């Protein structure tokens, strides 16, 4: 397939047009950012690791019944995806209190929530991706009420699957971010990526609050061993997928 133009470059990926207008090519970068890109760096082989993890998880979610933008992965750091118009809402699903939830509510880090919490954030870097109420979401006309309900329900379904999958990997899914897009038929598809960049993952067997971290928090908080953590997550994902076949 010939790639003929770059459409967009984000913090973690570059999107290219292809000879099929319904298909895009996502190239995963090694660049790492945190705090709305105020902190920048790179993680060795992050692009390959995140692309491979995302590809495996999208395929498993498709089997589970969740429709995604994933088509295939022509090489370790690139993914062919269906062209979608991204809904400008970042959906965060929380199972355990951590990060901004603990900062803003006072809930101690590690508090297990009685039920998953679904939050919507405005996907807007200039505004700092603020937390949205449903009324503000509709005021800004970011999505219709029907689309929001669909996204909310899909997010909970994805969470149900991922919690079980990560548990098989010996990993606790604390919280994670999802993005959704509309295809040419206005169907809502799970998009973007699912990786240690977008999930807060803790090693279930490790009690130490720093040693248990297996995600981008190692980069955010200067905990070290970032590459090793990402590689460990990849190996566990591949082993879990292999065990299913």
Automatic annotation (TrEMBL):
GO MF, one annotated term: ATP binding
Ranges for domain SAICAR synthetase/ADE2 N-terminal: 6-236
Catalytic activity field: 5-amino-1-(5-phospho-D-ribosyl)imidazole-4-carboxylate + L-aspartate + ATP = (2S)-2-[5-amino-1-(5-phospho-beta-D-ribosyl)imidazole-4-carboxamido]succinate + ADP + phosphate + 2 H(+)
Pathway: Purine metabolism; IMP biosynthesis via de novo pathway; 5-amino-1-(5-phospho-D-ribosyl)imidazole-4-carboxamide from 5-amino-1-(5-phospho-D-ribosyl)imidazole-4-carboxylate: step 1/2
EC number: 6.3.2.6
Xref: PROSITE patterns: SAICAR_SYNTHETASE_1 (PS01057), SAICAR_SYNTHETASE_2 (PS01058)
InterPro entries found in the cross-reference section: SAICAR_synt/ADE2_N, SAICAR_synt_PurC, SAICAR_synth, SAICAR_synthetase, SAICAR_synthetase_CS
Keywords: ATP-binding, Ligase, Nucleotide-binding, Purine biosynthesis
Family under the similarity heading: Belongs to the SAICAR synthetase family.
Protein name: Phosphoribosylaminoimidazole-succinocarboxamide synthase
Gene: purC
